[in-house]
Amino acid sequence: MSDALAEQLYNFYAAGVYPVLAQNDPEYQRSLVTAGLGWQGLRDVPAESRNSFQQAMKMQAWLGARKVTEARSLDPDTVRVKVLTGPLTLYRVAQSGAVTPPGIWWFSEKVAERCREEAGSDPQKRLDWLRNVLAVCFNWSRFDRIERLALHSGEKLPAVLGRGLSMPHYKIDPSVDRTVPALPPDYWQKKGEMLLGGELQIVLPWIPVRRVSSTESL
User: Fold this and answer.
1) Which residues are 159's β-sheet partners?
2) Residues pairing with 91 in the sheet
3) Percent of the chain with pLDDT strictly greater than 90
4) How far is it, in rounded angstroms, from Cα 58 to Cα 80?
5) Which of 43, 50, 92, 133 has the fewest Cβ atoms surrounding its Cβ within 10 A?
6) Which residues are bridge partners to 107 per DSSP?
7) What distance in Å separates the CA atoms of residue 16 and residue 187, rounded to the nearest whole number?
């Protein structure tokens, strides 16, 4: 899947500069600088910068595809690349106090609406519902902080879409994963339990981070 996905991403990445990323994502800005376009870039890439821009986008497409493939969280038969167009709102659940960068996995307003309807108004029940349908293993995240990203009318953002696979309660293999200092106390009790998965997930290899804000609930 990785090579085909990288090619799809590249076709979208190389089509032109995405202003919402050029203005709000430091990683994207650095890629534009590497390509000689300046940190904010231009909507249309000049002919003299086309080759360097394409090379920078090819590298970023490969990195984005590798992140998705190595996660092994999406059904390969459902994975596709799409340019999202605002107005729309995306959500993700993160971990309070985390020192690592937040994940690239998001979900749509449609999933948020189902969560409100099926889980009710209790914030913890909503988080539990989301963890189950998004299949976020308990050793991946405390899953206690909801963040939102708003795209304004006409703004475009490249994304990878796919159905999430079911996942174990804890995704740890103590026989091969030597980096785990200690197993969770209930590891053996929870072994065999699965998180449902199955929801459409939206992966953003590039995130306009200055547009991301926290919210108390959906």
Assistant:
1) 82
2) 107, 148
3) 69
4) 17
5) 43
6) 91
7) 48
CA angle 203, 208, 214 (to 5 degrees): 85
What mean pLDDT is predicted for residues 79-104?
A: 88
Secondary structure string (H, E, C) spanning the chain: CHHHHHHHHHHHHCCCCCHHHHHHCHHHHHHHHHCCCCCCCCCCCCHHHHHHHHHHHHHHHHHHHHHHHHHCCECHHHCEEEEEECCEEEEEEECCCCCCCCCCEEEEHHHHHHHHHHHCCCHHHHHHHHHHHHCCCCCCCCCCEEEEEEECCCCEEEEEEEEECCEECCCCCCCCCCCCCCCCCCHHHHCCCEECCCCEEEECCCCCHHHEEEECCC
Residue 76 predicted with pLDDT over 90: yes
The 10s digit of each residue's pLDDT in 43-63 is: 678 888 899 999 999 999 999
CA–CA separation, 22 vs 12, rounded Å?
15
d(CA 77, CA 62): 19
Taking only the tens place, the pLDDT of each residue in 3-46 is 999 999 999 999 999 999 999 999 999 999 988 887 766 667 88
Measured CA to CA, the distance from residue 55 to residue 67 in angstroms comes to 19
